[in-house]
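Usage

Read records sequentially. Each one opens with the input sequence:
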Amino acid sequence: MALQASILPSALSHRKEGKGSNGVLKESAFLGGSVLGHHMAGIQLPVLRCQRQSKLSVKAQSTAEAVVTAEGVAAPGLNQASLQGKKVLRQGVVVITGASSGLGLATAKSLAESGKWHVVMACRDFLKAEKAAKAAGMAKGSYTIAHLDLASLDSVRQFVDAFRRSGRPLDVLVCNAAIYRPTARKPTYTADGYEMSVGVNHLGHFLLANLLLDDMKQSDYPSRRLIIVGSITGNTNTLAGNVPPKAGLGDLRGLAGGLDGRSSSAMIDGGEFDGAKAYKDSKICNMLTMQEFHRRFHEETGIAFASLYPGCIATTGLFREHVPLFRLLFPPFQKFITKGFVSEEESGKRLAQVVSDPSLTKSGVYWSWNKDSASFENQLSEEASDAAKAKKVWEISEKLVGLTD
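and closes with the structure output:
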C-alpha cells in the first residue's frame, strides 16, 4: 500500500511559511508544515553569553537578553543569569508505536504532559489516533501522528523514510504495538505472508528498530533508549506464564520456514496454530530481541536497551478479540483476586519512567513494578534469556525482513 500521507500534525493548522538563510523554508510531507517550525517547536535553545577573559574583550550586546524557542517565544521560568555556564536540555523526541489506545496512548499522554518530550504517535489509523489524542487532552504541538502499519514491511520502511525527511532527531523508540487473537482458530497473515501475531509484534518491530538504530546513534540527547514491551505471559517462570497454552519457541523450525502456513507451520515452534500461543511466542521474541540488541550495540553506542512488563492492564483493548465473558470477568478477577490489576493511566506512567527516568538507564534489563509501584529488575525465564536462542532468532529475523540475504 502506497503511503499517501505519512504524518498528520497534531495542530492540523494552516500552512506556515517563513524565510531562512536559504529562502523560503521547504514544507515536509512528514509534518504537513515547515520542518523548522514543527521540529523546533518547544525546543529550548540556550543563548550563551560570552564572558570577559584575560585575552579577549567582548562588547555587551544587550542587557535584556532572553532565552527563546525557535518560534520566538520566551522560555518560561528561564533567564540569562540562571543559564550562565549551563546548557539547556532540548526537548526529547520519542516514537511510540500503537499510541492510539491503551498503554501506548497513556504513555504518550504522560510524556507529552511533562513538556519534556515531543511524541510521534506511530499508528495505523490517522483519525483514530487524532481523536484519541484530543480525547486524552494532549496539547496541540505536543505530538505528531505518523502512519505506520507493522503488518507491512514496506510501510515500516516508508515510515522510516518519512521520519528522516522530517529532520527530527530520534532519542527514544518504544516498540509497544501488539495484536492478540486468542480465539482465532486459523492464522491470518501480514502483507508479506507471515503469521499476523509474530509478523506485527516481532518482525515489524524488529525491522523498525534496526532501521532507526542509525538515527538514534546520531542523536545528541544524553540518554537514548530503545524499549520493547514484553509480557508476563511469555515468561514461564511466573504463574501467568504457566497458564495454557504455554509459550515456547522450540527449535524455531516454523520461524526458519517463514511462518507462511504452507511450506511451513504458521507457528514458530512448527506446531499446530494456536492464537493465544502465537501472541505469547511473539513476546518471547520481543524479550530475546531486546537482549540481543544490548549485546550487539550497547557498548558501541551507549544506547540503553530495555524491556518491561508494566502490570496487568485488564481493561486494555488488547483483549478486544477475547470472548465476552472473559472481558467481563477478567478485570474484577485481577483487581480483587490476584491484586495484579493496573490501570491504563498507571501503566502509562510506568512505561514513561522507562523512557525518561534517570534511575532506569541500565541496559539489558526487564523492568517490573511491585505492589507499591516501585520499579525493579525482574528475572526472565530460562528460554526468554537464552543467549544462543536470541542470536538464532535475530539471524532468522534478519532474513525474513530483508536485512540480509
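Summary fields computed downstream for this record:
- The chain has a mean pLDDT of 78.
- The chain has eleven helices and eleven strands.
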